[in-house]
Amino acid sequence: MCAIAGVWNHPNAFYQLREALVEMVNRGDQASCVATYYNELKTLRKIGPASSALRDGKKGIDEAKQSYMGIAHGRYPTAGSDSSREEILKNSQPVGTSEPCTISIAGNGDVIEKEYNRAREFLEDVGRKFTGNCDTEVILHYFAHNLSLDMEEEEHYSVSNEQIIRNLRKT
Q1: pLDDT for 59
Q2: What confidence score (pLDDT) does residue 127 get?
Q3: d(Cα 156, Cα 148) in Å, to the nearest integer?
Q4: Residues 58-93: b if buried by 16+ CB within 10 A, e if exposed
Q5: Residue 32 class from Cβ within 10 Å (0-12 exposed, 13-18 middle, 19+ buried)?
Q6: In angstroms, how far is CA 43 from the centroid of its own chain?
Q7: How many CB atoms lie within 10 A of CB 121?
Q8: pLDDT at site 72
């Protein structure tokens, strides 16, 4: 089980997220990742536990600190055997997309392989772009795809709370 934390409307969101991952180090220390938002999504992925991977002075930290909200994920691999640094970071969470709007999520658990493969194939066929092999990325793109269809159907170019809730239920 991985470590997951979220912060909303806090002037030190990044530090709150980092401290949450430090406190939950036993839930995931292979990689420490944070996604924060202030005018644009900033995702920071680092190898190792948050206490060392996300300390001040590391590349990308200053940009991630400029936020009042975000989510964090401490990776504890239970499926697959990512061996290279590149594979670990590529399959770390939070995962995000900007289509149809900026969305970032982190998850905990496994999607059944048969369902994962079927859903991923469908999503790739409709044009969704994947960056890794994380099952949470399939959930992200499935939600984003449904939300996009809903926005087109209603001819809206912004997302309402009702649309988010309705499409979360579909996902």
Answers
A1: 79
A2: 94
A3: 10
A4: eeebeebbebeebbbbbbbeeeeebeeeeebbebbb
A5: buried
A6: 8
A7: 9
A8: 96
Query: HEC profile for the chain?
Result: CCEEEEECCCCCHHHHHHHHHHHCHHHCCCEEEEEEECCCEEEEEEECCHHHHCCCCCCCHHHHHCCCEEEEEEECCCCCCCCCHHHHHHCCCCEEECCCCCEEECCCCCCCHHHHHHHHHHHHHCCCCCCCCCHHHHHHHHHHHHHHHHHHHHCCCCCCHHHHHHHHHHC
pLDDT along the chain (171 residues), means of 10: 92 93 91 92 91 84 86 80 79 91 87 86 95 90 92 79 84 77
| One-letter amino acid of 140 | L
- Residues 6 or more apart whose CB falls under 8 angstroms from that of 150 comprise 163, 166, 167
- Cβ-based neighbours of 43, under 8 Å, separated by 6 or more: 33, 34, 35, 94, 96, 104
pLDDT value at residue 97: 92
Omega into 49 within 30° of 0, i.e. cis?
no
**pLDDT value at position 78?**
65
Phi, psi at residue 135, to the nearest 5°? Answer: -65, -30
